[in-house]
Amino acid sequence: MIKILELIIGILLFYSFIYFIKKVSKNEFYNKTKMNYFIIGYSIFYAISVYILNPEFTTFITFIAVILTHKLFTKISNKDLLFYTIVQWAIGIVLDILVMNLTNTIVEIYNLNTKLCRIIGSAFIAIIYFIIGNNKYMVNFINKLKKYLYNINYSIYILLIILITYYYLGFFTLKNMNNANVPIVILFISLFLLVLLIWYIIQQFQIKSLKDSIKLLNRNNEFYIERIDEYRMMKHNLISNLNGIKSTSNKKTIKLIDDLILKYKEILKMPKNFKSLPTGINGIIFEKIYNINDSSFNISINNKIKNNVIEVLKARDYNNFCEALGVTLDNAIEAAKKSKEKILFLEISESNNKLILKVINSFKGAIDIDALGTKNYTSKHNGNGLGIFSILNIRSVKLTTSIKDNKYCCVITVNKSA
Amino acid sequence: MIKFVIVEDNKALQEQIKQLLIKISISTNQEYDADYFSKYNDKLQTEINDQSFRKVYIMDIELENSISGIEIAQKIRENDWDSEIIFVTSHDKMFETVHRNILEVFDFIEKFLDMDKRLEKDILKIINKKYDNKILKIKGNNVELELHMKNILYIEKEDRKSVIHAFENQFKTNLTLEKLLEMLDDRFARTHKSCIANKEHIVEKNYAKGYFLLDTGEKVDLLSKKFKKEIENND
Questions:
Q1: Which one in A10, B7, B112, B226 has a CA-CA gap of 20 to 30 Å to A352?
Q2: Per-residue pLDDT tens over the stretch B123-163
């Protein structure tokens, strides 16, 4: 009779395990007919093991059967299944120790049938599983814990270690059931380990979250710096391009462009009498030179182009040329200002198929010849290191730079339109 | 022997320069050769291309039916930085300053203001000038650096870079001091494990206190007794 009860309770426990995992993992069974056959098959096997084999073996069979049922008849992932099995075992061990300890005490006090008391205890454990599976707070807590754990690298290995530890702990508990003190000690150790584990998982999760936040902030920061650089380049190029358009425009358009330039450049010293502004490339050069305001400057400008530059270049190349001219002249003027000789030499010439701009200036200071032209390298105090870098990135414009003692020379070459 | 190349479209002025050269040659006992051109042509270009002689170009800036003297100077400087260029001109000072620097023009002489005296003085200076046009060339990622060795004061190690100190500027390079020393001539010596100095610019050495003084007045605390032999040997 007791054996039949043991069998029924064993199968009930098995159902409670499956039910618990199904509820917390929120997975539905498919192919229920096959699953029923599987459970019947398991029950028969379990019955044989109860009657013939030892209890340790029945525990192992249940463990395998629960995993197989979920693996074969739900779409649960291996990792999830491992996690929920561990949780189920963790709860099982705590409950088992508590119930077994209680039944041992009751048996001792009231001199009752030990096996019957244990069967009642097992039934109680199965009921607890059904209750936990239906408790949304417990289900949420377990799933939150899963989320935390999954955020830790190598969490799957932690799960495996816990699983093996629990299996041996449970095995050990069953073997020492007759000694009343052992389950109590194991209970406290298990509870302590559980709390410690949960605390560890939460801590790791927070560290991971912080690392992720820092990573995100760094990424945002890099993105922000890139955008700022792009904005600076765009602003500078836009002004150069506008100057280029201005150099070929009528008076009204010039006024409109100047208004636009002022929007992008707060302090812009410009000649107010637009009638005196030369047209073409000379106009751009004039505007740049106008800002110098230094009588000790030694300037030589030689524009050898007989036609208007826009007539020998494609529109896009003209814009690129103006952009390169703007950057090069700005750099040259700024560098020459700081030098003793204050020399600025500018020459625009043409060969059969090329337009050549040569800017030579004196300079004073330190230059890193390996870093020059790379992004963000600047030899100026207030520079952003984008000027030469941006010219080097214009495909249609070829920039060659050289330094001869204290003279810095830039040669910009653009192909003429066919 | 020095070769003079005169580019002047005014025949009278050409003759005046010719006489002056004869006079200088006699007084200095200096052998010379001279070619005269009135404009830029293929022959002049051949002359420019031929760099077998040390030359002195005496040129007018404004040339009739030809490209200007400045443009001829640019053609000369495309390959030849050793020859001297003297301009006989009437251009303003700003123009003169820029081209003196950019094209390394020896002098600009006003045509009608003591031209003979100035030209004679300049030619004598050129004859007596010590030629030192050795250049240190370093190629960076996007720039090529050419420094006259005479303009280099010292090179020191700073972090992982070598910093070349010239008169006005400093140039940082990834080249090691060992590599740089190989590229330089024997006027340079190691003064310290982190420094190479141009001995021609050193005016005082104090091994006890570990510094040397440069002719620019700069004091460099990178002098080691370990390199004394190396520094003093070639002095």
A1: B7
A2: 888 887 766 778 899 998 888 999 989 899 999 998 889 99
CB B121 within 8 A of CB B113: no
Q: Are residues B28 and B123 located together in one domain of the fold?
A: yes
Nearest CB neighbour to A370, from listed B166, B169, B174: B174
Residues B24 and B100 in one domain: yes
**Facing residue for B147 by CB, picked from A371, A372, A405:** A405
B94 against A148, higher pLDDT? A148
Domain A247-415, second-level architecture? 2-Layer Sandwich (3.30)
Question: What pLDDT shows up at residue A272?
Answer: 43
- The most confident of the ranges A30-44, A195-209, A328-342, B96-110 is A328-342
User: Strands A407-415 and A354-362, how do they pair?
Assistant: antiparallel
Per-residue pLDDT of A342-382, as tens digits, reads 888 888 888 888 889 889 999 988 888 888 877 777 776 66
Q: Does B97 lie at the interface with A, CB-CB under 8 angstroms? A: yes
Tell me, yes or no, whether B152 and B62 share the same domain: no
Residues B122 and B64 in one domain: yes
Output the CA angle A281-A283-A288, nearest 5 degrees.
100
Q: Is B68 helix (H, G, I), strand (E, B) or coil?
A: coil
Find the DSSP H helices in A111-180.
Answer: 114-134, 136-150, 155-175
> Whole domain around residue B8: which residue ranges?
2-128
- The three-class DSSP label of residue B83 is coil
pLDDT number for residue B233: 74
- Best probe of the A interface among B133, B134, B168, B175, by most A CBs < 10 A, is B168
Residues B140 and B118 in one domain: no
> Do B234 and B189 form a contact (C-beta atoms < 8 A)?
yes
Let me know whether B77 and B193 are in one domain.
no
